[in-house]
Amino acid sequence: MAQLWGGRFTKETDREVYRFNASARFDQRLYQQDIEGSIAHAIMLEKQGILSLEEKDAIVKGLTTIRKRLEEGSLVITEEYEDIHSFVESTLTDMIGEAGKKLHTGRSRNDQVALDMKLYVRAEIIEIDELLKTFQEILLRVMEENLETWMPGFTHLQKAQPVTLAHHLGAYFEMLKRDRSRLSDTYERLNTCPLGAGALAGTTYPLDRGYTASMLGFEGPTLNSMDSVSDRDYLIELLSALSTIMMHLSRFSEEVILWNSNEYGFVEIDDAFSTGSSIMPQKKNPDIAELVRGKTGRVYGHLMGMLTTMKALPLAYNKDMQEDKEGTFDAIDTVKDCLKMFMQMIDTMRFRKDVMAKSAMRGFTNATDAADYLVKHGVAFRDAHGIIGQLVLYCIEHDKTIEELSLEELRGISEVFDADIYDAVSLRTCVERRLTTGAPGISAMRGVIAEYRKYLKQ
After folding, report:
1. How far is Cα 47 from Cα 375, in angstroms, rounded to an integer?
2. What is the pLDDT of residue 22?
3. Can you say whether the dihedral through the CA atoms of 365, 371, 172, 251 is positive or negative?
4. How many angstroms separate the CA atoms of 74 and 59, rounded?
């Protein structure tokens, strides 16, 4: 058992206790960050005269070699090591001798793991942001291709007013914008360096924490050593942001599942992103959307787990905080996998424009526009609302749409109707007249798309 402690103990740790306590099986994914932080720490120690130039060079060379061998697979992290920190230090000492034992001068595993997690999360935020941006680019392409793809907009899962597919997908573009903003905020708040905080009370060695922070790309050092080692707010913020991303993907998944059903028939999912039934040969199932919807609860669970772990911890570091890693790692992996799969599904999906338009017409989505027509011809809105209610009831009883009614039938309900009603309630007219910013009208949508293009270039 390779441990970084033991001098005051008279017998070895029980094997099962050691296994229960160890974290190397999951924190080994932090090896790059642990080595990066250790190199910066060694360089700073030499600058401050705590290490000799020869010792620093040997340490940096050894750490670089360990990283290379891990990446090549010629070096493996085994269960004999308690954690990634003990593996790196023990391997380094075996490789270069006494100089390796000096690497830990002026730091603790507490500030070391805090640093590793911040470095890891920073890199993952950048990667997730790039995935979100790619998804936005796919959505924007589909939007530009469907400015005149009429479809029903819904409230309460009932057809409400006509919109376009471009407008509908634009709502998800906005959600992804907010997701990216939340990740950016998290990055900004976490970007201070805990290295040099020690176990909880700093160190008597003359460390230059600002220099280390600068080397590692942080805005500066953390300003309270107790908070430095016990802060996990940024992980809670990250998990909250990831949960919101999954919530958005889950909402989108639910719509894809509905749109893919026989009752809707709005979309056809590419064969590469759907599966069949083992018993029913006619089935084509939206498995990717269903899995994304299902995995949302998994990410929510990790957020609740972290909040519960941290809710009553006294200052400063407690071993409970070791539970911050597995849930965070899994949440990050889950979100990245879901984004990759979902965006490819959308990118290859075929939208059935004719079915969408027919659905909008059969659902009386132009009823509000028919009421507006009457208002423009001098009828009070409340009276117009009642007249159109009667009109819809007539259509339902006679299995017709408003457009299919004859002028005689229309005038049988209100003499105000004239031949221009047919143009007023056409899907194109209903959509194109909605020109306020954020509305589905084509010119309004083109303006928004231009703004989105600028946003993606920033």
Report:
1. 80
2. 74
3. negative
4. 20
Please spell the DSSP secondary structure of 171-207, one letter per residue: HHHHHHHHHHHHHHHHHHHH-SB-TT-TTTT--SS--
* Mean pLDDT of the chain, nearest integer: 94
Beta strands in 192-292 (DSSP E): 267-268
324-340 confidence digits (pLDDT tens): 999 999 999 999 999 99
pTM for the whole structure: 0.92
pLDDT of 8 reads: 56
Total number of residues shown for the chain: 458
Residue for token digits 């075929």?
A: 350
Q: Residue 138 and residue 98: Cα distance in Å, rounded?
A: 55
Taking 80 as the threshold, does the pLDDT of residue 240 lie above it?
A: yes
Position 263: which residue type?
E
Q: Residues of 184-218 as b/e, b for ≥16 C-beta within 10 angstroms? A: eebbeebbbbbbbbbbbebbeeebebebbbbbbeb
Structural domains present in the chain: 15-105 (1.10.275.10), 110-358 (1.20.200.10), 360-457 (1.10.40.30)
Q: Is 246 in contact with 338 (CB distance < 8 Å)?
A: yes
The percent of residues in the chain predicted with pLDDT above 70, rounded, is: 95
Position 5 scores a pLDDT of 43
DSSP state letters, 338-374 = HHHHHHHHHHHPEE-HHHHHHHHHHTTTTHHHHHHHH
Res 25: pLDDT? 84
Tokens of 444: 């309004």
Q: How far is it, in rounded angstroms, from Cα 45 to Cα 202?
A: 15
Q: Is residue 19's pLDDT more than 80? A: no
Distances (CA, A) of 317 to 99, 199, 200, 221: 28, 8, 7, 18
Q: Which residues are identified as catalytic?
A: 156, 277
Cis peptide before 2 (omega within 30 of 0): no
Say if residue 38's pLDDT is above 80. Answer: yes
Give whole-number Cα distances, 336 to 123, 138, 318, in Å.
Answer: 13, 16, 30
